[in-house]
């Protein structure tokens, strides 16, 4: 009997010894890297995690991010104590007592997770082990996977504890741990779910975030608020249990839901997506030529840059609201006006060309597919999300159906700038960035219509015309330009023997007079003026230039119009003020570009501003006053192109210039009627609604309550004349009024040139400053 017991004991000891030896060999095989790399001390000291670059608005509020992983690291001091307490109470209450491994929990994990291969035991991994898992992802080792990964994390955890103190470990963990909705780190999670920095989290908010760590999908408060609240209460209860929270506080919170202020920072969503795309392009361009101290190119998706911009986030929100309110209603009217005869449906050429310039078609063509195969693929139905103003829908449509669907939508481009610096305050590149990527502020160059007329009139005033010079609105045929003859909106504007003053012609946007003014001012002079005002787009040397046949971007027009409230100096719009690295070190600061010389005289500036005030008060933009009841100091100009394809409005206030364009993406699709498509109806309402919203917010009194500087007495006297003058009896009988005035005006232009030449001589001789006409 003793012999049997002795033999059994020996075998037991051998088995136990063998198991211990096997475990030690297994452990050491992991330790020495036979199952994969184990980071050494040097590597652990240099832990660098990819961080999101952040974009901030004028008031340094977060407006967007660029990232591979939505993470923003913060220092331990910026993590609130209640977040630390919630984490430790829930995840590792002996955190301050162990050296990376909680041996009490280890044996439970060993037998349940490792020997039984059950990964549901939980509670065994310390915060340091979880950090190791976050930093060095688990791998698939087959049947030994759980054992290898657990032991690997224990080894790394011990090494982490030798490199970092407890505070540093907590900071590393909370900066790397994944939260719900593809968010990494406490700072990013705090912004996403509560719209605030982590240091401002309340105890129930901290508990909600800590609760996600158990299962970040299942306890997502956006998707499952009840489950999240239940888990939050569990965290709060743990905090009470380990003396991190008073029972009275817990009782007051446990029945009250935690309020979310969820903000998505995906590139397609959120505030100002078109603006953020342009910021990204400019920063990436800067990064290519400005490496870091080690010669490496900054990566906007990984290096945690902080980009500060001029955008006014609240103003941008108001602009987006105004745009959506107007464009959604206008779209309904637009589609209804065409009925079944809509050009995007009836015009086969428009559809065919839209398909052939679409990305799906071009991609398949590049792969070498023949036409039939491409069309078969594009005609195949599939589930697709379709944009609609009321609600996006998931429908079973072909790619071609989708392309035709989007042809019908009116789009927009809108920008607001500070006319004194060029700082961009709002930027709307289209109606929906997710579905319409093309930016109509910078990329698009559409015909600008009558919004070009102020540049023509400015040139004319600089070359001898006066606001009370009179012109006949009668048509003129330009034989040298293939018999081209401009017309006006109504026949009444072409009455015989009636003459309009320059100021009235601009306010009523009389086309025939604008072309005559261009003729008198000179096409080359007008193009030169446009260039001085910051227009860089090509301008055709033809009479129709007066009617805005040139394609110019919304951004260019804003910079040019700024001259009318910026001492005759245009501005170059800009939007980045500085870039910092992830530690707050300033990498670069940007200053607005200053225009050295005025584009035109102060006298002309005041005259033009008064004439554009008249456009708003009594001209084509007067619905600002009678429909929208705005009493702000506003000047402006409407614009409409041929066949009502483009509607424009430029609104000028003392401290803000706003340019708005509305039209279809395909320039061949226009409004069916002028009453609907004119700039006063299509584009002006976006500006008007925007100003209404700003006027209701006292924060924006700087913009809405400001007044233009007083106009000089000489300018007011020069503007004091009748709007309409009828030809005298003798003029009716003997003279062509236009020819008589043409001679008179040319004489004035010659005098103006002589005056400038003389001033130039004395300026060269004595270095004196040129005096303004007033």
From TrEMBL:
BP term (GO), one: regulation of cell shape
Keywords carried by this UniProt record: Carboxypeptidase, Cell membrane, Cell shape, Cell wall biogenesis/degradation, Glycosyltransferase, Hydrolase, Membrane, Multifunctional enzyme, Peptidoglycan synthesis, Protease, Transferase, Transmembrane, Transmembrane helix
Keyword Thylakoid carried by entry: no
Subcellular location: Cell membrane
Keyword flag Acetylation: no
Domain Penicillin-binding protein transpeptidase: 417-655
SUPFAM superfamilies tied to this protein: beta-lactamase/transpeptidase-like, Lysozyme-like
Principal location listed in the UniProt entry: membrane
Region listing for Disordered, in residue ranges: 744-774
Transmembrane segments: 12-35
Gene3D superfamilies named among the record's database cross-references: Biosynthetic peptidoglycan transglycosylase-like (1.10.3810.10), DD-peptidase/beta-lactamase superfamily (3.40.710.10)
Known catalytic reactions: [GlcNAc-(1->4)-Mur2Ac(oyl-L-Ala-gamma-D-Glu-L-Lys-D-Ala-D-Ala)](n)-di-trans,octa-cis-undecaprenyl diphosphate + beta-D-GlcNAc-(1->4)-Mur2Ac(oyl-L-Ala-gamma-D-Glu-L-Lys-D-Ala-D-Ala)-di-trans,octa-cis-undecaprenyl diphosphate = [GlcNAc-(1->4)-Mur2Ac(oyl-L-Ala-gamma-D-Glu-L-Lys-D-Ala-D-Ala)](n+1)-di-trans,octa-cis-undecaprenyl diphosphate + di-trans,octa-cis-undecaprenyl diphosphate + H(+); Preferential cleavage: (Ac)2-L-Lys-D-Ala-|-D-Ala. Also transpeptidation of peptidyl-alanyl moieties that are N-acyl substituents of D-alanine
GO cellular component: outer membrane-bounded periplasmic space; plasma membrane
Residue intervals of the Glycosyl transferase family domain: 63-239
UniProt pathway: Cell wall biogenesis; peptidoglycan biosynthesis
GO molecular function: penicillin binding; peptidoglycan glycosyltransferase activity; serine-type D-Ala-D-Ala carboxypeptidase activity
InterPro entries: Beta-lactam/transpept-like (IPR012338), Glyco_trans_51 (IPR001264), Glycosyltr_51/Transpeptidase (IPR050396), Lysozyme-like_dom_sf (IPR023346), PBP_transglycosylase (IPR036950), PCN-bd_Tpept (IPR001460)
Compositional bias annotation for Basic residues: 748-758
Family: In the N-terminal section; belongs to the glycosyltransferase 51 family.
Protein name as annotated: Penicillin-binding protein
